């Protein structure tokens, strides 16, 4: 209400003006030596991506935090989905922000974005990755 606009209008304006996030790899070794991981995050504080986007992935959205009524069983749905997609020879992208889940283990998927699960962030990743499809767990 403060700017008399909607989130979609702000998103459109942002994209039209080139204000889009950049995908970076998480440095898991604190710069001790060059690291290449599938752990990713998006940022506006960069000028180039750390990965190339081939578009031949299927994106799976995780369940986020555990809470009453939503727990490990939802993460297990994501894990089962990732495993089956890989068994079918498909490449996978996982989006989840809960590091305590099995779905965020490094060997569960080809790319893992540690990001909040919101419309804005998921659409930003979707636009970057151009996946073949999205599965909600």
Would you give an account of this structure?
This protein has 137 residues and is an alpha/beta fold. It has a single domain, classed as Rossmann fold (3-Layer(aba) Sandwich). It is built from 3 helices and 6 strands; from the N terminus they run H-E-E-E-H-E-E-H-E. Strands 1-2-5-4-3-6 form a 6-stranded mixed beta sheet, with helices on both faces. It starts with 6 loop residues before the first helix and ends with a strand. The relative contact order is 0.21. The model has no long low-confidence stretch (mean pLDDT 88). Keywords: ATP-binding, Ligase, Nucleotide-binding. It comes from Leptoconops sp. 8FL. This is Carbamoylphosphate synthase domain protein.
Q: What's the order of the H and E elements?
A: HEEEHEEHE
The secondary-structure class comes to alpha/beta
* Overall CATH architecture: 3-Layer(aba) Sandwich
Name of the top-level CATH class: Alpha Beta
In percent, how much strand structure appears in the residues?
Answer: 15-25%
Q: Estimate nothing, just give the exact number of structural domains.
A: 1
3D shape:
globular
- Indicate the mean pLDDT: 88
